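User: tokens in, sequence out, please.
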């Protein structure tokens, strides 16, 4: 049944395009101050997700959830080194009541659930445009609760690569989507890092004002990677021991997810 539903969603993702010029509602839940000398870590979470959950990927199951991000912050792995922004997506922003420890974050906003995680990242960046542009270090990290933070992801050995022109960083890559004949190489969007200027430039090219998963994958996740190459940039993936650099688009018939290795 899930196979047929996914196939139906793929077909409708072509028939029903995203809704253009749809403005999200935004509610400030915690109004903290930005330290403009520090990098920014922007985290997106949906109000309906539990603090921990099992994520199925093929026949594999992963423990994910925002609680792992909170534990990482509480262990002071990045507590003093990043501005931490939590973006909570909700159907009714005015009535949002998400039970989570907001003290771990410097700024918290609620935002309409438009375009899933990538839409929330895009709209949050636009909302904080002035604050983000004042950041002198220029590093912007985007993640969601499918990502379980590890120290290597936030090491300057890795993040210092954002100073390279037109470079996007990730910690996992794949060939997808699964139900497409030709699978495209792309960075997994649950963790992306770049300098603020290039991140804005890439996200300004995507329109994901719909909650059709496959529309968002094709016009968001895949387009992010193709836009990097279209602008003469490179993507770099780092999994704590190996660097993977792809400087051109690739396609293949077989689905692949780096997390399954």
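Assistant: Sequence out:
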């Amino acid at each position: 049944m899930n196979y047929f539903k996914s196939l139906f969603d793929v077909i409708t993702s072509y028939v029903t395009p995203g809704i253009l010029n749809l403005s999200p509602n935004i509610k400030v839940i915690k109004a903290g101050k930005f330290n403009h000398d520090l990098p920014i870590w922007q985290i997106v979470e949906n109000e309906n997700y539990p603090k921990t959950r099992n994520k199925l990927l093929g026949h594999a199951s992963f423990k994910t959830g925002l609680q792992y991000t909170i534990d990482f912050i509480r262990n002071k792995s990045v507590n003093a080194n990043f501005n931490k922004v939590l973006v909570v997506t909700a159907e009714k922003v005015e009535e949002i009541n998400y039970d989570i420890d907001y003290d771990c974050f410097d700024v918290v906003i609620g935002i309409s659930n438009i375009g899933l995680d990538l839409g929330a990242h895009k709209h949050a960046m636009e909302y904080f445009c002035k604050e983000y542009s004042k950041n002198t270090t220029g590093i912007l990290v985007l993640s969601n609760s499918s990502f379980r933070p590890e120290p290597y992801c936030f090491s300057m050995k890795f993040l210092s690569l954002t100073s390279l022109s037109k470079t996007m960083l990730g910690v996992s890559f794949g060939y997808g989507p699964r139900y497409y004949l030709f699978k495209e190489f792309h960075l997994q969007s649950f963790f992306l890092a770049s300098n603020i200027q290039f991140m804005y430039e890439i996200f300004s090219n995507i329109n994901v004002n719909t909650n059709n998963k496959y529309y968002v994958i094709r016009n968001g996740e895949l387009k992010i990677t193709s836009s990097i190459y279209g602008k003469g940039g490179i993507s770099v993936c780092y999994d704590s021991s190996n660097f993977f650099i792809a400087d051109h688009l690739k396609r293949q018939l077989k689905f692949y997810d780096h997390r399954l290795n």
